């Protein structure tokens, strides 16, 4: 059983494994008042993709700028991500750029780790799931949250190693974690802790205020 809080709405979500008794789960959730209160208190304000905002990119703070004389495609220059074209649609252009960067970078890193593990990955895709940073299907398709491109590179790479390791073991056994350590080069506990601590912040970017 798992409790999570949607940073944008404050909605508390209870996730159950298959065939779990609902009554028992609800009683357990009702006893988590303190955790829920702390999670709600940690909610971060939304940061829309608008000129003047500051976001994370590769773990570093980047300012968003707009200049109608610049090309429509955003350009990263000296700590600023600047996009031109009309003001209308600016937010969509910034998010599309971030998604393209995420797909390109994590496709390359997935191929790198897959070659090390001697496994095949049929396709890499990015989306915006709220409850997970990556998933690996039995078909060989790996999906990532595009928001990983906002995180420090080592955090993103640890997540990629985790998903590629599922092409060896489709579980979270000791053998699976040994593959993760072998691919990544060490135990990624610091990276997992960073994601847990910064999950709500990463999900705040691009949200309407």
Automatic annotation (TrEMBL):
Pfam families: YgjP-like (PF01863). It comes from Sphingomonas tagetis. CDD domains: M48_yhfN_like. InterPro entries: UTP_pyrophosphatase-like, YgjP-like_metallopeptidase. Coiled coil: none annotated. This is M48 family metallopeptidase. It comes from the Bacteria. Residues 8-197 form the YgjP-like metallopeptidase domain. PANTHER family: UNCHARACTERIZED PROTEIN YGJP, UTP PYROPHOSPHATASE. Gene3D superfamilies: Metalloproteases ('zincins'), catalytic domain.
């Amino acid at each position: 059983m798992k409790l999570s809080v949607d940073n944008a709405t404050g909605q508390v979500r209870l996730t159950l494994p298959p065939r779990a008794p609902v009554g028992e789960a609800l009683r357990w959730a009702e006893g988590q008042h303190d955790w829920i209160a702390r999670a709600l208190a940690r909610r971060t304000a939304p940061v829309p993709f608008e000129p003047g905002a500051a976001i994370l990119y590769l773990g570093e703070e980047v300012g968003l700028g707009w200049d109608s004389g610049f090309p429509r495609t955003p350009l990263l220059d000296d700590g600023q991500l600047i996009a031109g074209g009309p003001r209308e649609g600016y937010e969509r252009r910034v998010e599309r750029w971030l998604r393209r960067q995420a797909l390109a970078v994590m496709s390359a890193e997935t191929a790198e780790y897959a070659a090390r593990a001697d496994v095949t990955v049929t396709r890499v895709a990015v989306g915006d799931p709220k409850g997970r940073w990556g998933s690996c299907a039995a078909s060989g398709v790996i999906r990532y949250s595009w928001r990983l491109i906002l995180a420090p590179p080592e955090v993103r790479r640890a997540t990629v190693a985790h998903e590629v390791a599922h092409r060896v073991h489709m579980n979270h056994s000791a053998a699976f974690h040994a593959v993760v350590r072998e691919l990544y080069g060490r135990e990624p506990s610091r990276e997992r802790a960073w994601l847990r601590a910064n999950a709500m912040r990463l999900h705040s970017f691009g949200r309407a205020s």
